[in-house]
Amino acid sequence: MKPTHPGLLVGIIVAVALIAWAVISQTYAKLYILPWTAIPTLLLLALGEGYSGWATKARIARKPGTKPVEPLAVARLAALAKASAYAGSLFAGVFAGFALHTSQILDAETPRAEFFIAIGSFVSCVVLICAALYLEHACRIPKEPEDRPRK
User: Fold this and answer.
1) For residue 37, what are the contacts with CB-CB under 8 A and spacing of at least 6?
2) Rounded-to-10 torsion of CA 41, 47, 49, 53
3) pLDDT tens digits, 35-77
4) pTM for this predicted structure
5) In principle, which of 50, 54, 81, 105 could form an S-S bond with 135, CB 3.0–4.6 Å?
6) What are the residue boundaries of the structural domains of the chain, listed by start?
C-alpha cells in the first residue's frame, strides 16, 4: 500500500466542492437545514485517530512501557487512516461547496447560520484528514540504521 498524497486529497476536495456547489445552487430551497452535529463528530474521530497514531508510533518504536503491536493491527489502522483521509476529503468538498453557495446569500438568517456550520464542518474535516495522515505515517515501519546490528 502506497502512502496517501495530500495533493490528491486537495484535488478531491476542489473537484467535489465545485460539483457540490453546482448541485446545491440548483436544489438549495429543497434541502434540509445543515446539522451542526457533524462538527463534534468529526473532531472526536480526529481525536481518536490522532491518539491511535501517537500510541501506535510509540509501540512500533518499542518505547519503554509499551507492548509490541500486532502487524495485522497496524495494517488495519493504516487502512482506517487511508479510508478516513479519502472520506474526509469527500465530505470537506461537500461542506466547501455548501459554504460557497451560502456565502452568496449571507443577508438572510438561515443561510448565514448554515454558512458558519459548513465552515466549521469543513475545518473539522481538514482536522480529520490531518489526523488520518498522521496515523498513516505512524503505521510505517521505521528504518533501522545500517550500522546497528540486527537481533
Assistant:
1) none
2) 180
3) 999 999 999 999 999 999 999 999 888 888 888 888 899 999 9
4) 0.88
5) 81
6) 9-25+36-138
